[in-house]
Every structure is written in C-alpha cells, then in structure tokens.
Amino acid sequence: MKQALLVLVALFSLSAPASAQFDWQSGGNQASPSISVNAEGVVSAPPDVFYLEVSVTMQDLELEKIQADVAKKCGDVVKAAKAFKLDPARTFTRDYVIAPIRDNTQRLISYRVSQQFRFALADLKQAEALTTAVLRAGVTSVDSIQFTVAETDELWEQAREKAVEKAVSRAGRMAKAAGATLGAATSISDQGNQVLNLGCSWSPSDQTATASNGAALPEGEQVFFVPPTAVKFQVNVQAKFALEAMQR
Question: To pair with 221 at 20 to 30 A between CA atoms, which of 103, 121, 128, 183?
Fold first, then answer.
C-alpha cells in the first residue's frame, strides 16, 4: 500500500504591538515636546516561486569512496530535477562539506561528506512532484521549503509606506487626545522586516525508514504540500514627531 508524507506548516502572522511615548526634552532654555510611535505596514502577494533546499549526505571511513558515492547520488538528483522547468537564475549548488568524525580520544572514525542544492521552480503545481522526485533520487534531507515571491523590492516599498502612514495617523490621534497639534517628523527609523510565508525543514526521524538507495523518502511514498495563498511582507518603523501648542 502506498503511503503519503504530508507536510503541513502554519502561516504565522506576527505584528508589532502598538505603542507610543510622550517626551518632554529640554534643549537649552527651550523645551521641545515630542511623541514617539511604533507602527507596522503589511502587504500581501500571491507566491510565484517555490524554493527547495536539499542535501545529499553520506558517511564512511574511506574518504575517496564516500566522495565518489556522494557525486554519483548528486548526479542522480540533478538528473531528476532537470525533468522539471527550473529557474536557472535561482537554481544552484551550495556548500560542499567534508567533515572528519572523531571519537572521544580524537581517533578518526569516519568522514561525513555533504553537498547542498537549491532548486527554484516557477510552476508551483509541480512543487510536490519535484520534491518527491529528488527525494527518490537520493536526497537525504530537506533543509528548507518556501513558497514565496521572486521580486520583492516594490512590495517592501509599499509595506514601508504603509508603516509610515500608520505612524503618522497614530501619532496624530494621540496628539489630539493629549490636547496638542502634531508637528513635523523629526526621525523615522526602520525597526526590521519580516516575510510571513510557508517555510519548514524536514528530515526522516526514523533513519531506518529510508529507501534502499539511502534516500530520505521510502519507496511508495509521496510528498504533499499545503501552500499559502499569499505571502505577507511586514515592515516595522519607529517615528518621532514634534508636538505643537501642547497644553501644560
């Protein structure tokens, strides 16, 4: 009977808590009241690219042998991936690592050799099939899965503009409640950005449940994803404004 591997990852929406602070600063002989606020701006866009980061890792005492075995398995993985329409500009090999493994007495007991890949796919409907194919070909671990947006510069600008607009609005309402008029912004700083989307890492918890070729996906199993409908881009800002006609 065929079994299925279901990968479900929650979409976490994190937002910065609203906060404000009134300051009364003395500069020389003249006081300068001000207000500081935090605000966030969020924009959403449908995902248009699938990123899959995987590794082929093997371990043996004979270094040349394990290097040859990893090279062969990597060739099988690349061959399986080339059956899909990958984005060549965003698909590449990553770290190639040779790590000596020693026991408590520093005696060499084996070598671990690992090659990492990142595959990029524009056809999101093929994400499950690509992941299943490279796992069956010999991938030993899935390091990262992302449904995201390829071109993000304009989205970040839109989120930043929304954050500043919200900061101005929030400061204005609070200044009015305090019996003052909001003056010009004296400083605006970016407090950090984040992408809220589907991401996960996965590797088999039961190392005995691998395929006969050492791959992470046993024969007969297939990967399933539940991709997000939208990717959220959030910008957090802190803004400081002068206060005019403050009643004391």
Answer: 121
- As a whole number of angstroms, the distance between CA 225 and CA 148 comes to 14
Q: What is the 3-state secondary structure (H, E, C) of 199-248?
A: EEEECCCCHHHCCCCCCCCCCCCEEEECCCCCEEEEEEEEEEEEEECCCC
Say whether 125 sits in a helix, a strand or coil. helix
User: So where are the chain's domains?
Assistant: 49-150
Alpha carbon distances (Å) from 31 to 94, 188, 213: 57, 21, 75
CA distance 225 to 235: 28
CATH number of 49-150: 3.30.70.2970
Residue with tokens 């690992």: 114
Distance of alpha carbon 22 from alpha carbon 232, whole angstroms: 31
Q: What is the pTM of this model?
A: 0.74
Q: pLDDT digits over 70-85, tens only?
A: 999 999 999 999 999 9
